[in-house]
Amino acid sequence: MSSSAADFSAAQAVAAGTDFAELKVSAAGLFWNEFRPADGACRLWHWHAHQARCLTPDGFSVRSRVYEYGGGSFCLGGDGVLFVNEKDQQVYTQALDASPPRALTADGACRYGDLQWHAGLVLAVEERHAEGAEHRLVALAEGTRQVLAEGADFYASPVLSDDGRRLAWVEWDRPAQPWTRTRLMCRERDANGNWGQARCIAGADESLQQPRFDAEGRLYCLSDRNGFWQPWGEVDGHWQALPAEPADHAPAPWQLGASTWLPSGPQGYLATWFESGFGQLGLRGEDGRVERFASAYTRFRSLAMDAEHIYAVAASPISPPAVIAIARSHHEVSVLAGGAEVLPAERISLPQPIHYGSGDTTAHGFFYPAPGSKLPPPLVVFIHGGPTSACYPVLDPRIQYWTQRGFAVADLNYRGSTGYGRAYRQALHLSWGESDVQDACAAVRHLAEQGLVDRSKAFIRGGSAGGYTALCALAFQNIFRAGASLYGVSDPVALGKATHKFEGDYLDWLIGDPLHDAERYRQRTPLLHASQIKVPVIFFQGELDAVVVPAQTRSMLEVLQANGIEAVGHFYPEERHGFRKAENLAHALEEEWKFYCRVLEG
Question: Are 13 and 401 in contact (CB under 8 A)?
Fold first, then answer.
């Protein structure tokens, strides 16, 4: 351990993991949802008159679990806020004074998410659990519930035009995923308040997300029909693409309630997009010119806007997530919450974009060198979850924890990751467990050939789907010295039988039909090839995980131990899929580091 590493502990790395989401702005001020690892709760905060105050009282946590991943957990309405309480998944209303929250719904069989407010009604995605999960769009008010749309397997993003005459949403049916094929739907209301039939606005072989109405009632949406998620809309009576950068303007919609773009008039909009993996923020005028903002930041989320300011959750390579306000007139950036120094800037390992050959294509990622290393250092390869997700070039305290201890880190956007267009994202179709593994191994070779890392001291780690890639790499390749699986998939067939509806057909897209493609599953199931793993493995698993059930991890652990492989498991009784409690996050990080150190010493 270097002398500087001792004063940056796992607990400090975890404590720096405060995050923000779902900015909302109104005449009453700015609101956001804030997660702090210290207690694992999510709380609403209100910024007004240059001060921030917490609105959520003890005993409440603002988090939806619709589709398990949630999102859209609150909205502004009436004289306060309406939110989903994590414990019972019911909608509560809360005034901005000191009065306690009051339940708006009381149906224990339902969860709610993607809340939107309009004229006394709360629009929401409803998830009803009976024999299975059923999804609808509903409008909620005191003692009433109206079904707005049903019949599709999944719904997202209900939004009403300002005049209340048009309702739009996104829907899709199994086996499609929200990032493969969806439909943009719309209903119109007559003068008597009666809704007409739903009609499809867009929905060819494309993924649509984040529908929006402008002030004139024109409908817009992000579509990847032209290869990237870009704005489309109703222009002169026709549905057409708006002028846009040739880049993704959103990540994959794993969670509800995302806001990475906002229309600002005919063909004008505020948006964030990716350039070589780095986030940009700009306001495109109706004349096509782009006014850029906040260039010091490299990722933007939860965009909101009023007449004077642009708001975002932003992060940079040297600062963690923060709520920022950008003056539209002179571009000055103010930090309203978060962004506190984690490490002195001179000690931070900065992300270096890497683009390297893998198979017949180019893969992407970010390399973080070990500061002050005189010899090629050991390497930890980070594999993000999803797998249809992404990593970003922003300050990740976990990565800095490793680099402070003399490890270099490669954070990979392997094939299937978002931010590089539809074709790159679709490249994982039927090839999960192969192309992602190939990209991970190619990254080690690429960095070693440049003398940046010691190839004989490479480790691989991943959570959830990233854990599957890590286990496949350990079972089917001879590149890594050891690895870590955090709530990772070891048996995809068992996962398909036990997982929830939202991902019920995901494996068919990633690998194939479990019956017709049984041999392919057998070839890509780490549990069935555990005898081929010859290196140490450490596992971390939540006992309440409904996505990757604990039995999978126990089975893999027991087989390795029976084969005489050094395999260690840590199980956390109160954790679900993705750890939230600070003490558990810190414990897992430190135990993983100690494990690799023992491997290197042995």
Answer: yes
* Rounded CA separation 387/524 (Å): 15
Can you read off the two tokens belonging to residue 561? 């131990």
Q: What is the pLDDT of residue 5?
A: 53
User: What's the rounded Cα separation, in Å, for the pair 293 and 585?
Assistant: 34
Kind of pairing between the strands at 219-223 and 230-235: antiparallel
Report the topology of domain 345-601.
Rossmann fold (3.40.50)
Instruction: Quote the tokens at residue 254.
Output: 């794993």
Q: What share of the chain is helix, strand, coil (3-state, %, to 5)?
A: 20, 40, 45
pLDDT tens figures, 241-285 = 999 999 999 999 999 999 999 999 788 999 999 998 999 999 999
**Residues whose CB is less than 8 angstroms from the CB of residue 437 and which lie 6 or more positions away in sequence, other chains included:** 469, 472, 473, 476, 477
Return the biggest CA–CA distance within the chain. 78
**In angstroms, rounded to a whole number, what is the distance separating the alpha carbons of residues 243 and 285?**
10
Whether residue 71 contacts residue 256, with contact meaning beta carbons closer than 8 Å, is answered with yes
The C-alpha atoms of residue 45 and residue 180 are separated, in whole angstroms, by 35
Sign of CA dihedral 586, 590, 595, 596: positive
Q: Of the candidates 399, 441, 411, 410, which has an alpha carbon nearest to the alpha carbon of residue 593?
A: 399
Domain residue limits, the chain: 345-601
Beta bridge partners of 53: 46
Residues with Cβ within 8 Å of 56's Cβ and at least 6 positions away in sequence, in order, are 41, 42, 43, 44, 62, 83
Q: Measured between alpha carbons, how far is residue 30 from residues 48, 129, 309, 514 in Å?
A: 7, 34, 11, 48
Residue that has been written with the tokens 């005919």 in this structure: 266
Cα separation, 488 vs 469, whole angstroms: 8
What is the structure's pLDDT at 6?
A: 54
CA torsion, ordered 478, 480, 484, 486, to nearest 10 deg: -70
Listed as ranges, residues in the chain with pLDDT below 70 are: 1-6
- Model confidence pLDDT, tens digit, residues 188-225: 999 998 999 999 999 989 999 999 999 999 999 999 99
Write phi, then psi, for 518 (nearest 5 degrees): -60, -40
Closest CA to 431 of 312, 319, 523: 523
- Write the DSSP assignment of 337-387 as a string of letters: EE---SS-GGGPPPPEEEEEEETTEEEEEEEEPPTT-SSPPPEEEEE-SSS
Q: How far apart are CA 71 and CA 82, in angstroms?
A: 14
Cis preceding linkage at 387, omega within 30: yes
Q: What integer pLDDT is reported at residue 1 of this predicted model?
A: 42
450 within 8 A of 354, measured Cβ to Cβ: no
Q: Backbone phi, then psi, for 415, in 5-degree steps? A: -55, 135
Q: What is the pLDDT of residue 2?
A: 43
Radius of gyration of the chain (CA): 24
